[in-house]
Design goal:
72% helix, mainly alpha
């Protein structure tokens, strides 16, 4: 009976050998394990993924690399290679893919940022590789990075991993004013419980215009919901002074005036908020 069990687990043994070789990035052992699995179990469901990942390891990214070749490797790594890695390693796929992203980032390190093809830049690849500090340094080399949605979003992710919510709060407000859809899409990727709670509250409570850009009002609403965010928001740089940004800064001023007891200025700024956004004003007055 034990012999039968061993015989029927032969496919598991061969499969594990391929997985171990891939994990060690041993191309010779991987090729041998895949060949043995193919010879004995040609219909094994993981065989195509093993072959694809093994071949990828045998084809390192040239450095430097021509633009078109870089685009092809980027698409393949983010598509078929990533899918194969997830099929083989499950949740550990990102760890296995990380060196590939870092390798490609090094190969295109001198490629300047192009908003028309923002994925072809070292910074987002370093983020995929989990190299947060390196990504932050790379982003800082982009001219006016804080005035462009893509580099700003990348920096938020990098600093979030390094320093948490307080470090990214003013940057997230800037992104919400500049590119609300991008800011909203970024939030779940940051995996910050405190931020997730705020966003859930905003989604449930804020009565906007029903437009996709309503997330631009999130910083102002968040200040009203939690006045402790005021200190961080003061670090946000001035943007285009859109209505959402204007209201957030009015609320910021109101919170300061409340602490200082400057009644006349407080009344005047409340009037400004009421005229700019009656719904936000009503929410502000709920706790006053």
């Amino acid at each position: 009976m034990q012999l039968d069990i061993f015989e029927h687990s032969r496919d598991v043994v061969l499969r594990n050998a391929a997985i171990d070789a891939l994990r060690e990035r041993d191309t010779g052992a991987c090729a041998q394990a895949v060949a043995m699995l193919a010879a004995e179990y040609s219909s094994d469901p993981l065989l195509p993924a093993f072959g694809l990942l093994c071949e990828r390891l045998r084809s390192p990214t040239p450095n430097p690399i021509p633009r078109e070749a870089a685009i092809a490797i980027l698409q393949e790594t983010g598509g078929a290679i990533a899918a194969a890695a997830h099929g083989v390693f499950g949740r550990a796929a990102q760890e296995w893919l990380s060196p590939l992203w870092a390798e490609l980032a090094a190969a295109i390190a001198k490629v300047p940022f192009d908003s028309g093809n923002e994925s072809l830049h070292a910074a987002p690849l370093l983020l995929r590789a989990g190299r947060w500090a390196d990504a932050a340094v790379c982003i800082e080399s982009i001219e006016s990075w804080r005035r462009q949605p893509a580099p700003l979003a990348w920096m938020i992710e990098a600093r979030c991993r390094l320093d948490g919510f307080d470090a990214i709060w003013p940057l997230l407000a800037e992104l919400a004013w500049m590119a609300p859809l991008r800011a909203q899409a970024l939030v779940p990727l940051l995996e910050l419980p405190a931020l997730d709670r705020l966003v859930r509250g905003f989604d449930a409570e804020f009565e906007g215009e029903g437009a996709a850009e309503d997330f631009a009002w999130f910083p102002a609403w968040a200040l009203i919901a939690d006045g402790r965010l005021a200190e961080g928001l003061r670090l946000a740089q001035d943007g285009a002074n859109t209505r959402p940004e204007y209201c957030a800064r009015v609320v910021l001023g109101l919170l300061a005036l409340e602490r200082q007891g400057r009644h006349e200025e407080l009344v005047e700024n409340r009037r400004k908020l009421r005229e700019a956004h009656p719904v936000l004003f009503a929410r502000y007055m709920q706790d006053r």
